[in-house]
């Protein structure tokens, strides 16, 4: 059970036998009937495994295919290629109601004319659950979501966040649900309630060990919610990893740029000898990085050097040891508990995040690229 | 301190003037007529509430009123469910959707008296396709000029043919406005088609159905041209609706006083019914709110 070994709480609506490891097997989807070029794919071919009980965030810009992927997992869309496996069983052809999955949508979906109780009971009634059982489950879930006082009222009178809790509750009441998918569920929620609702989700995740997949385009939301973040761009998954891995080891230039504030510095460069040249400034690389880069590089490939502003050193004095690079510091902003220095190197602007007591003024300065933190990207992929 | 700016009245003035000429002044004229006995342009006698008392006692008029009520009830009971059903059956997108919408809307584009003429000919046993089919192929004894029941059915079917498309269009627009997420959530909740209709589609059609109901009630309660062209109110009084009786009174016999009193009562009846429908539907299907 998610590897936790904890006994489930008494309120758990899910018997412990239900596990759901979700595997996507060379899955791809195109809305066009015939795929001629890779650009026709809404989702490019991918293999991905979502472990049971994990809290995943699916992060990417609007239109990158996040919702399509989510709808394929829930069965609302049938993929044009590949398979969806739940615990090794092929469910690609199964309808959403036959899968042990619930989904919460961007805009709260409630059944207006029903009371909150009837809303929560609806998925159970449709599945022919006994009346006494329905009552018990609905009360448990209402308790958990703080909806008990609202049970007898009409659902259409609720606030947006309560409505969203009702739609989440319709997933939680089902004893068969092993995974809940969220499609940007907090879009219409007030900022201060977002935080409360997100904590509620975390609590539910810890209590029930359900697999949660949470689609968002907000990196803060993704990084605070998830154990594992899946970053998508242009219909393909570019990296799946812990928030820390995404920060320290971006596998793709997009991940570097999209995650972090400010994002990763990306400097076009060329390889020569044991260094990468940004303009005519040599930047030393780690031996391993260099060896792999030299293997992968071809004359046509686009080589980009990436370093997080947090790791880029910047000082006014010349740094003689381990390759200081001279640069023009154009601005130093004091943001309270840290400073951001902007410098120009080989025609590209780079940012460095410095401590609040760093003494630095615009003018001539030196940048230091720690080799272990300096990444190299060939055609947008990390070497 | 609230500041008042009376110049705002100037901006409302155009509307006030146009409403005055289109509704208020004619209404006042009617009220004026309703309390007088008019013999000629310059000969009139004030009679007070006499015409109102007469109108309420008029048995022919009462007959027309109940006939009209029955007709409107039948029209609503048939056209609304039929309209919803057709709207549900129409394709949602693509060229098929456009084509079917145009086809469905065709009857709405035909002028009232032409609709009457079409059905008058269509129902004739000798040269009309419908009448010939009923009489010769099905062997029924159908004749709308003789048989009160046949005349009634002809007018009813004609109205359904003419006006169900309006209900269809309104419902179709209402259905298309339901976000896809509702259907997706319903699928995940394992809702059966009937439950989807009952709990998603029908509640979300409430607004358009209210409009459809009001429009169809008013139109059918005021129906004039089509039955006038097809049956002329006959045979006997079988299809004499309120408006047909009223025009007989006002135009045929030039009884302006009684006709005016009658108009005012007619107007009130429609207002009351519309108000009842409106309040009923707005409160339909609502449990206790917070």
From TrEMBL, chain B:
One of its GO terms (cellular component) is plasma membrane. CDD domains: TM_PBP2 (cd06261). GO terms for biological process: transmembrane transport. Coiled coil: none annotated. It is a multi-pass membrane protein. The keyword Transferase does not apply. The chain crosses the membrane at residues 9-31, 69-90, 102-122, 160-178, 207-225, 264-284. It comes from the Bacteria. Residues 65-277 form the ABC transmembrane type-1 domain. It holds the Pfam family BPD_transp_1. Gene3D superfamilies: MetI-like. It is found in: Cell membrane; Membrane. Keywords: Membrane, Transmembrane, Transmembrane helix, Transport. Belongs to the binding-protein-dependent transport system permease family. This is Glycerol ABC transporter, permease protein GlpP. It comes from uncultured Truepera sp.
